[in-house]
Queue: 3 jobs
Job 1
Amino acid sequence: MKKIGFLSFGHWTPSPQSQTRSAADTLLQSIDLAVAAEELGADGAYFRVHHFARQLASPFPLLAAVGAKTSRIEIGTAVIDMRYENPLYMIEDAGSADLISRGRLQLGISRGSPEQVIDGWRYFGYQPAEDQDDAAMGRRHAEVFLDLLRGQGFAQPNPRPMFPNPPGLLRLEPISEGLRDRIWWGAGSNATAVWAAKIGMNLQSSTLKIDETGEPFHVQQAKQIRAYRAAWKEAGHTREPRISVSRSIFALVDDRDRAYFGGGQDADHVGFIDPKTRAIFGRSYAAEPQALIEQLKQDEGIAEADTLLLTVPNQLGVDYNAHVIEAILTHVAPALGWR
C-alpha cells in the first residue's frame, strides 16, 4: 500500500493557452484541485515553492486555505527553500497552518534548487557565516526550526508585560504538537539523505538527484533511500520514517491524454545544475494503463517509498488534473498493489 498525492509547481503565465493566467488563478485552482483530489480518494496535496518566479511562492496562506477547505487529505510542501526562511517566524506560520488543518501538515523543507536569480536569499536579508556556504546556511536554518518545534521556552519574559505570561521562559506560539514528526527533508544526494535520517526528518526524493554512480535514476534513488533507512536505524529513532518520491506519470485513457502526452518514450536525462554539479533527472511515464503498469513495476525508487507524489501539469486546469489523478488511482494503482 502507498499513499498517493499530487505535487504542483503552480506555474502561471498570461498566455491564452494556459488555464492559469495569473497568480490568483494558480492559488484558487490549487485549493480546488486539493478538494477534488480528496473527493477522488487521493492522500496528499503538495506544493512546490519557488521565489522570483511565476509559480507558487509563500506557502502558508495556501496551506491554511486548503486545510480549511478539506478534512482528510495530507497537505504539504516539496520543498520550502530554507535559505530564504526566518525559522522563528516560520514556527508561527507552520503551527497556525497545522492547527487549521487539525494536524494534517506534512512540511517538506530543504536547501532548495537552482534559482531564477543569483543568490536570491541575499535579497531576503540572509548571508552565510564566514565558514559557511549557502547550503550550510539552509541546513542551519532547518536545525533551528526543528529545535524550536520542540516547544521549549527560550525567551526571557518582560517583567512588566502587556498581558500575563505563563511561568518560565517563553516559547513561540502557536506550537502544534506532533508537527516535529511531520517534517521532511528534500535530499538531492546520499549524504544529505543520511544527514536527514540522523536528525530525525522524513525523506523526500524528487525527480532530480546528484549523479553519484552513473546508474539509472531509479536505481540511484533506491540506493539513496536504503542509505537513509540504514542511517535512521543506526540513529535509534523510535518511530518509522516516511519516504516519498515524485514522478510524472500519465495513464493514456482518452484522446486528451494521447494528445498531450502520447508522444513516445521518455528516458532519464543528465545535466548540470551548476558548473560543478552533474545531476540526473528521472524519466516521465506516459502509456496505456497496462503498459504503464509493467513499466512502473521496474521502478526501484517507487518500490522503496511509502508515498508517491504525482507531478501535475497545473496549467491544464483543475478538471484535467483531477482526471490525471483519477486515472492513476483507478487504472494503475490497484494493479500494482498501491491500493
Job 2
Amino acid sequence: MKIVRYLLTATSLLPASYAMADATHYPVTLTNCGVEISVASAPERTVTVGQSATEVLYSLGLADRVNGTSVWFNPVLPQFADANEAIERIANDDPSFEAVVNKRPDLVAVQYEWHVGPTGSVATREQFHELGINTYIMPADCDTKDNSTGGDGTRTAAFSTDSIYKGITELAEIYDVQDAGEALITDLAAREQRAIDLASSLDLPEDLSAAFWFSSTDLGVSPFVAGQLGAPGYMMEKLVIRNVIESDEEWPTVGWESIARADPDVLVIANMDRRRFPADDIEAKWEFLRSDPVTREMSAVKNNRIVEMDAHAMSATMRTIYGLETLAEALSNMSFNE
C-alpha cells in the first residue's frame, strides 16, 4: 500500500512529497494498531465508535457510508450538521456490542483502542472479526502509545500529526477516495503551518508556560491534565510553550496545589457536551477556578489568561489542528505585562 510520506521542516508543514494510488486495488491489506486487516471492497455500511473517525469519514465525503455513530464530546463540525442529523447516533457515550452489530456494518471505525481493543469496553476486535466485521482504529491512538497501561494509556513518544495524516490516507485507500484524502491532508497541513506562523509572529515571553485541564471526577479533586507527549503537548511544543505537567501519561491526575505551585501562565480548559463528571461542564470549571482559594490565586486565573478549547481538539484527532489554531489566536489577544 502506498502511503503519504511527509518531510516536515522548521519552515513548512506542507507535504513535501507523497505518492497515492490512482485507484484502490482490492483486497486492501494493512496492519492497523498491531492487527492485520484485509478489506475486500469499499465498505458500504460503517459504524463509528468515536467522533474522530466520524468526522474524518465525513471530511472524505463518505457520510452516506456511515449508518451509525457514537462517543461524542462536541457538536459536529458545522459543515456536516445536516449530514450528521440524518445518521443514527446509537449512543452519545459507549455503545453496546449488540447496538453496533445490529447496524450490520462492513467496517467499525474506532477512535480509542480502549473501546475496541484487547480489553475493549465495547468489544474486542476478535469479537467483531468472528462475525466478519472489519475494525479500523485511528492510528493516532496507538502509534507512539501504549494502551496496556490502563486508563487513557501512556505515550511512548510524542504525538505528531503524522499519525492523523496516516489515518486519513489509510481510510482514503480503504474507501477508494484518494483524491479526497489528499485534499484534506493538504488543507490540514496548511492550517497547521498558519497557526504556528501566527504564534511565532507574537512577542511572547521566552518561558511561556501552560497547563491543559480536561475534566475531574469531582470539582476540587485532582484534575485530569495533559501530559507531555499527547495532543496538547504537541500544541505546546509547536507554539513554544512549556507544559508544567511532566508526566508521559496521556491524562494524569495532578493535585491543584502542585499545579498552583508550577503557576502556568496560561490555562486551557476543555469545553464539552459530555456530562460524565461534574467538571465536564465548562461553567463549573470557571466557577471553581474563580472561587477555590488555591486556584483563584494562580496567575492564569488572576490575569484572565484562560482559553476554552473543544475537548475533542485535546484528543489526538484531526481537531487537534483546530485546537492549535484556537490556542494561537487566543495568545494573540493576551497581555503578559503583569
Job 3
Amino acid sequence: MRQWLLADTPKSAFQAWAGRAYLGLLAFLKNRLAVLGLLVIAALVVIAMFAPVIAPYDPVEPNIANRLQPLSSTHYFGTDEMGRDIFSRVIWGARLTLYVICLVGVIAAPVGILVGTVAGYLGGIIDTVLMRITDIFLAFPKLILALAFVAALGPGIENAIIAISITSWPPYARIARAETLTIRNADFIKAIRLQGASAFRIIIGHIMPLCLPSLIIRVTLDMAGIILTAAGLGFLGMGAQPPTPEWGAMTAGGRTYIIDHWWVITMPGAAIFIVSLAFNLLGDGLRDVLDPRSDR
C-alpha cells in the first residue's frame, strides 16, 4: 500500500490524490502540538455528543442548599452561586460552543469565498464595490461590530451567531480574492474560457476549489477568535441568556466570587482557554500541510 501511495507515476487521479493526502498526513503527524490540538478538538466533539451521558447533574436546575461548594468527589469542579454543578455546565457548554463554531463556519466561510472569488475574477466595478464593502466591515473591531449587531437584533445565542457570522466573512473574502487574482489568468483558466465555460462555472468549478486550502487554514485559525467573541458576548449578557450553560455567561456569573470562590470563574475560563489554544495549534499544523509555500 505504501508503495502504491508513493508511486512516482500515479496511474489514476485517485492514486495521485491519495498519495498527496498520505504525504500530508505524515507531515501533520510530525507536528506533535497540532496532533495534540486535534485530540483536544476530537474530545470536545465526543463530549458535546455524549453530554447527557457524561454530565452527572442537570446543568440548569438550581440547588440553593448546595451553592458555592468547593471541588470534591461529588462535584468535580464545585458548584456555582445557584448550587448548580459546574462540571455538568461545562460539559453542556461544550455542545453550545461546538454549535456556535459549526454554524458560524457554515455561514461565514461560503459567503467570504463567494464574495472574494467573484470580486477577484470579474474585477472592475464589481471588484471595487465588493472590496469597499469588505473594507467597511474590516474597519471595525470584530467584537464591537458584533455587539452593535446583537444590540440591534436582540440578545440570544441565535442572534449572536448571526452577528459573529456577519463580522467573520471579510477576511475570508480578502484571502479568496488574493488567491483568485493569482490564478485567473493562468493558462488552464484561459483554456477553459476558450472552451466556452461561463464565468459562473469557472468560479464555482475551478477557482473556488483552489482557494479552499488557504480558506481552511484561516477558518481553523479563526475558530479561536469565534469562541472568544461568543464568550465575550455571553460575558456581556448579549449572547446566551441564563440559565443556559454557556462558558462566557458562566465566567460573567463567577466574577463576583473570583477571590473567595475561584472555581466558579476558573473552570469555564479554563475551558475557553484550552479549546481556543487547541484550534490555534491545529490551524498551525494544517498551515504546514496545506500551504503550498511552506517548507516541508
